[in-house]
Amino acid sequence: MTKRVYNFSAGPAVLPEKVLQQAADEMLNYAGSGMGVMELSHRSSTYQKIIDDAEAGLRKLMDIPANYKVLFLQGGASLQFAMIPMNFGVNKKADYINTGEWSGKAIKEAKKLGMDVNVVASSEESTFSFFPEVDVNKVRKDADYLHITPNNTIFGTKCMDVPKVSIPVVADMSSNIMSEKFNVTDYAMIYAGAQKNIGPAGVVIVIIREDMIGKIKGLPTMLDYKTHVDAASMFNTPPTYGIYIAKLVFDHMLALGGVEYFEKLNKKKAAIIYDAIDNSKLFKAHVKPGKDRSLMNIPFFTDKEELNEKFLKQASAEGLVTLKGHRSVGGMRASIYNAMPIEGCQKLADFIKKFDKENA
Ligand SMILES: Cc1ncc(COP(=O)(O)O)c(C=O)c1O
Fold it and tell me: How many percent of the chain have pLDDT more than 90?
């Protein structure tokens, strides 16, 4: 490839071209420091400004109240699957909504840590092709938290309605953070791996309400949220470059009009692709039309494996790449995070229509 492609990867994923350009421009000499960001000491005032600005940008974008702490951690969203029960499991009881592979992994980890796990709703029996209704009466009042995954990267479902429960709600927003507006105050904690809507892999963002911190004593230092809150994400060397790119992404998003702007754009982008699939003869989306469809991840397929293969090959030749579906669903998956331009979605939709006409 001699030019940039439309990259539909589920993550690490496309980043705004403007951000990559700015990072390239600043690669060798950041803000007159005579060195690149990767070479800056995390204890320097130049770097402190980067992390402070990153936090301020995220707070502004998500309207995060003062009683929530923002952390930039490592270990991916997967480490959060363990840190959550470790830090919040006072009664050793947790309720989970099972909406796909990632919530399944979170459940597994909680069980490993000796939690009594109650799955209050699940769509597993229909290959997670819808977002299950939650009967709030099934949520235990003495559970330490209710865990939800509002957007399912692999199966392409989403639901931003937060069950009205009295226990803390914890959400894995790895694949939909900042894709649409929601109230941070509906959650006790939100976490997200950066590599989809935020920046490079290696950073995980945690937004945690103050009363959730320090519930359990004696945890290993690095696995205790209190350590990272007390040290403002600088207990040890943070993923400095990833946080810098996240800051550039936040600045870029704010300049364009914030989450509201992206929500509108994301709805248009998703509709362009869903319409092409729904109006075709050959293609079917994994999730049926309606409110459960993700704005970020669209799994779709034909009913013939050789047609899926042909589609992927021809799409790739057109510069529409990384469309292969996850092995558990098969077919194709278009991940269209905030940084995917609408032109990429249009090009994919046009290609779906053309392929349908030629092969149906
Ligand atoms: C919803 C969700 N949760 C968790 C993960 C795992 O993230 P990580 O690789 O950062 O551990 C992913 C990765 O795709 C995801 O989509």
Answer: 99
Residue whose entry in the numeric block shows the structure tokens 């469809």: 293
Q: State both tokens at 209.
A: 């309400």
What's the 254 CA to ligand 1 centre distance in angstroms?
25
Residue 8 lies in a domain: no
Q: How far is the CA of 303 from the centre of ligand 1 (A)?
A: 28
Mark whether 95 and 223 lie in a shared domain. yes
Provide the domain count of the chain: 2
Model confidence over 77-102: pLDDT tens digits? Answer: 999 999 999 999 999 999 999 999 99
The residue out of 190, 223, 255 marking a domain boundary is 255
Please, which contacts does 90-94 make with residues 24 or more away whose CB atoms are closer than 8 Å? 90/144, 90/215, 90/216, 91/142, 91/143, 91/144, 92/116, 92/144, 93/118, 93/140, 93/142, 93/143, 93/144, 94/118, 94/143, 94/144, 94/145, 94/146, 94/147
Instruction: Give the residue numbers annotated as catalytic, written as ranges.
Output: 102, 172, 196
Q: Is residue 154 part of a domain?
A: yes
Output the domain CATH number for residue 198.
3.40.640.10
Q: Atom 10 in ligand 1: which residue has the minimum CA distance?
A: 76
Same domain, yes or no, for 244 and 342?
Answer: no
Q: Residue 18: pLDDT above 80? A: yes
- Tell me: the pLDDT tens digits for 97-156? 999 999 999 999 999 999 999 999 999 999 999 999 999 999 999 999 999 999 999 999
Residue with tokens 């992206």: 262
pTM: 0.98
Q: Do 247 and 302 share a structural domain?
A: no
Contact indicator for 160, 183 with CB cutoff of 8 Å: no
Q: Which atom of ligand 1 is nearest to the CA of 100?
A: 1
Domain boundaries, position 339: 257-359
Strand partners, 207: 70, 190
